[in-house]
Write a structure and sequence with these properties.
about 240 residues; about 65% helix
Length: about 240
């Protein structure tokens, strides 16, 4: 694929990622989700304000807007399934996924504000099939373990993002070991998106980090501030 094709696909992914589904779901229910709960448009706040079923819908849509553009771009470029390719194509493919995440975090429709990029990031990682799909499975396991251990969604999200590069490296090594065709992309090429998310997710959770230090971060299943989370409209 040409550089122009990748540029256009990346731009399209940004605008797809920028669709603020959490905000739109709230508007359909007659509320501005940014003025309730934590003020965030992501799945956790949607669930807190509108219930679990609505949160599941928001989660599916946010994951989908990361998965769709990334998987579609990879399929069009012939990269899905671990097909041989060069490092530049693999990096461009991950750039499409990152663009969708950045669209979600910096949505032009909401004054370049948005969500924290976790669900859309998950979709983008899943879309780089199979290497980062395996990484996503490993990070999801870390997420569940962190939730059960600490009962903080924010901590679990950051733990999962932090585990992504190691999981991606393992997945890339497995793919290279199983590859029967020559020309498999170098292992390091698959680390671009995981490393970007490992940096971005803690940044979008900077308000949560401040509350963790202050002891006011809401826990799941009860705990400090669980029923009345403080405003968090910056991320």
């Amino acid at each position: 694929m040409s550089a122009w094709w990748w540029t256009g696909t990346t731009a399209l992914a940004f605008w797809i990622g920028a669709i603020p589904f959490g905000y739109l779901i709230g508007r359909a229910r007659g509320i501005d989700i940014r003025r309730h709960g934590s003020g965030n448009i992501g799945t956790t706040n949607v669930g807190r304000v509108l219930g679990k079923r609505t949160a599941a819908l928001c989660l599916a849509l946010d994951v989908g807007k990361g998965l769709g553009p990334t998987l579609g771009a990879g399929a069009a470029a012939g990269l899905v399934g671990g097909a041989p390719g060069d490092w530049s194509g693999v990096l461009a493919w991950q750039g499409v996924g990152l663009a969708a995440v950045l669209g979600h975090v910096f949505s032009p429709w909401l004054g370049f504000k948005g969500g924290k990029g976790v669900a859309t990031g998950l979709g983008a990682v899943l879309g780089v099939y199979p290497v980062l799909t395996l990484a996503a499975a490993g990070a999801a396991g870390a997420f569940v373990g962190a939730v059960l251990l600490w009962r903080y969604m924010s901590v679990a999200s950051m733990v999962a993002a932090g585990c992504l590069p190691a999981c991606a490296l393992a997945g890339a090594l497995v793919l290279r070991g199983a590859a029967s065709a020559a020309g498999a992309p170098p292992t390091w090429a698959f680390l671009a998106l995981p490393l970007a998310l490992a940096a971005l997710v803690p940044w979008t959770h900077r308000g949560n980090l401040a509350r963790l230090r202050a002891g006011t971060e809401p826990r799941l299943w009860g705990g400090a501030g669980a029923d009345a989370p403080p405003p968090d409209r910056a991320a």
